[in-house]
Specification:
Blueprint lengths: L2 E5 L2 E4 L4 E8 L8 E6 L6 E6 L6 E3 L7 E6 L4 E6 L8 E7 L23 E6 L1
Parallel strand pairs: 2-10
Antiparallel strand pairs: 1-3, 3-8, 4-5, 4-9, 5-6, 7-8, 9-10
Length: 128
Amino acid sequence: QVEVVESGGGLVQAGGSLRLTCRASGLTFANVAMGWFRQAPGKEREGVSCITSAGGGRYYADSVAGRFTISRDNAKNTLSLQMDSLKLEDTAMYYCAPAAGYSYCPLSWRQSRGFGSWGQGTQVTVSS
């Protein structure tokens, strides 16, 4: 059974940084693309970033490009998201998920489609 566990969220002031970590088990981690997603209250879940199975391809939502960096360690089955220059609008629950059988990021990743095995998420709150 696939399981993902997110951690690293917290309360941070605008302009600050956080590093999120996702640990995955029950799958061949190195064979699948991974994504970070977020959902703010009253809004739909949206894709934040996606990385291909070997890490060669990295994609970002326009709203976070240049501020967030996705990375993965296939030897440790972990996915990370370094978030810098945080803004109030980054406040949300953040989730990671593996692509459903894809080594590449599906075209629908920004709509969080093509992914499965969602974890409980980790809350990020940015204050002024």
